[in-house]
Design goal:
- The chain folds into 2 domains: 118 residues, Macroglobulin (MG2) domain (Immunoglobulin-like); 144 residues.
- Helix content is 8%, strand content 44%.
- It has a 5-stranded antiparallel β-sheet with strand order 1-2-4-8-7, with no helix packed on it. The protein has a 5-stranded antiparallel β-sheet with strand order 12-13-14-18-17, with no helix packed on it.
- The radius of gyration is 21 Å and the shape is globular.
- Copper (II) ion binds next to loops.
Length: 311
């Protein structure tokens, strides 16, 4: 109860403070923070191939990097809307740069429940591609419909993401969600990908994080990493950086899914900074820092590795 009263007071205080600033106009425009929705329903790309149309939906209007981006791929027969039986569906992702091409981690397409022509997957855009001539991403899609083999490539850009800056609290407004973090282990690039959640709730949320490393083949493969430990300390930087009763969460590695899984407790709606600390099996910190105290003894100093969410 005490906690609830504290939260209520904090909200009221923040409300009062906000309404006294000259930033009123910016606030009046409502939340400008991406994504506009957590649902994968925004049409981003569409392309005709033979008698078929392929459409890609996401939860953002335009792709950005770095990010773990959920997509739904829909196949349609332009001549026969009732023809919806698409099989052997597979995605491949490539980035084409002036001097070389490379791939990225991804979650392969699988059928959406109760559908035979919509498929869910995730693309980890590890870098921005901003020119369709020589610096872009390409999503290759394969599928089979009756006796027809579909094989198409969709070119796309991914702009540079604009993320929350720990030094500047105002940057929460208008920031992109940080869903892909990068760190190095013995000079090898690693990635921590927060898999998409359609809807967060106040309470305990299932979350999964995958760790990938760049393979020895110039970025053509990204094997999952099973021997590192993912810990998350959820914080609200615009509310005194308070955390949750449960404290720091340690995810469990699931050898079947090759993902690190856990329950993320969120005590209220708003912006959550997931302070990320990656450890080895001996408990030594490999990346990130625990939340530290400031000069007043308050835990307000977050580490440099994080994921975040807003709901
Ligand atoms: Cu690249």
């Amino acid at each position: 109860m005490k906690k609830l009263i504290y939260f209520a007071l904090t909200i009221i205080t923040l409300g009062l403070t906000t309404s006294c600033t000259s930033d009123d106009n910016a606030m009046d425009k409502g939340p400008t923070t991406n994504p506009d929705t957590s649902e994968v329903t925004t049409k981003v790309l569409e392309q005709k191939t033979g008698n078929y149309t392929v459409t890609i939906y996401s939860n953002v209007k335009e792709f950005y990097a770095p990010s773990t981006t959920p997509i739904i791929v829909e196949f349609k027969d332009d001549n026969d809307p009732s023809n919806k039986d698409f099989k052997e569906v597979a995605m491949n992702i490539m980035m084409h740069m002036p001097n070389h091409s490379h791939s990225a981690p991804m979650v392969q397409l699988t059928p959406v429940a109760n559908s035979t022509n919509k498929f869910y997957g995730e693309i980890m855009f590890i870098m921005a591609g901003t020119n369709l001539d020589n610096n872009y991403w390409e999503i290759e899609l394969k599928a089979k419909n009756k006796d027809t083999q579909i094989n198409t490539k969709l070119k796309t850009l991914a702009r540079g993401g604009k993320f929350y800056d720990r030094e500047n609290i105002v940057s929460i407004q208008g920031s992109d969600r940080r869903t892909l973090e990068t760190f190095n282990v013995n000079g090898v690039k690693h990635f921590a990908a927060l898999h998409h959640t359609d809807k967060f709730i106040v309470g305990k949320n299932d979350i999964t994080v995958s760790l990938y490393k760049k393979g020895d083949d110039m970025g053509m493969t990204f094997p999952e990493v099973d021997n590192l430990i993912v810990t998350i300390d959820p914080r609200m930087p615009d509310m005194g950086n308070h955390g949750v009763l449960e404290g720091i969460i340690t995810l469990e590695y699931n050898a079947n899914t090759k993902q690190h899984e856990g329950k993320l407790p969120l005590s209220m709606t708003g912006y959550w900074f997931l302070n990320l600390v990656i450890k080895d099996q001996a408990g030594e910190i490999i990346a990130g820092q625990p939340v530290k105290e400031d000069a007043n003894g308050n835990q307000t100093i977050n580490g440099d590795k994080f994921l975040d969410l807003l709901f």
